[in-house]
Amino acid sequence: MTKTYQTVTQMVRETAGSDDGFAEEFEKRIADRTIVKYLSILRASRGFTQNDIAEKFGCTQGRISKLESSADEDLRLGELAQYASILGFHVHIALQSKNTTPVHRVKQLAFRIKHELDGLAGLAKTDHKIAQAVSLFFGEALFNLVKILQDSAGKLPRKPEDGTPYITFEYCQEIREQVAHQEEGQGESGEEQLLAIGEQVEPLVHA
Amino acid sequence: MWKLTPTKSYGISQKRYQKKHKRELAAVLNNLDTLLKAFQAGLKRLQATTAFGFVHPEPNGVVSIDQKGGGLNLAQTRLYAYPDEEKEVLYLITFGDKPSQAEDIKSCASFIKALRGGQIENYDQDIPDRDADGA
Q1: CATH number listed for the domain at residues A8-86
Q2: pTM of the predicted model as reported, rounded to 2 decimal places
């Protein structure tokens, strides 16, 4: 009993065989339910039962159960928005070209980050206390972005000729000092700060 | 990162269901997929048993996952699994229906005994590769 699987679809693909098309049908079933599944997981992780949601929705528990077991294409936009709102979320809809590459997606996210950072800078106006707090956050953000890049770059293969990395990222002295200063003050490691920011993101659960 | 570890008995019963009860199997595996993703998102076993109508608490920390939400007129079917929250492993023990429920719970108890006794690697080595139906 040593074989392990990361996902149910992987297990089904590797164990069900391809004779009767079960694995293909099952993969489609999972792919068709990405959003509704995510909603039910979000509900559960927030400690809500289907009854709680039904009460706020003004419907029966059976209707919520039906919604959570339906396919994404049967979900109405209004229901999605209302369900998300009950859980404390807004719905953002992004239309993306089928030809979008990973590089494009990273660039789009980078623009989004810039927009949000500009928004934060705009909060300060002439208030120096806010400006100071935002500047501290900018330092943290830079630290975290570099950490993310370091982590991803670490997954690249090494150069075949000498085994060295293709790219490395180093913090400048000023950031190192700033982060060390914050860690002393708050008792937080960089890893914890990264998690704290990551928790705000709530990525979609990937099948 | 949670992982799935099926036992040999589970593998045999999955094959049997694939042969004779495909719709029930698909429904239960879909619910298993939701549960695994919920564990990945940080949900605990006890939370899962109250939040999802298709997850039921069983003795010794085992949970059973049924076919609810999978469509109309499905036979009652349960997958028995043990979530090891410390190691983040979801062991899949066996599949069963209403008539086999008592026997399935006994299998779960012997699985847990082997797991707690550190004998899990040898747990189901003696089980033949195929069941009586040839599945």
Answers
A1: 1.10.260.40
A2: 0.76
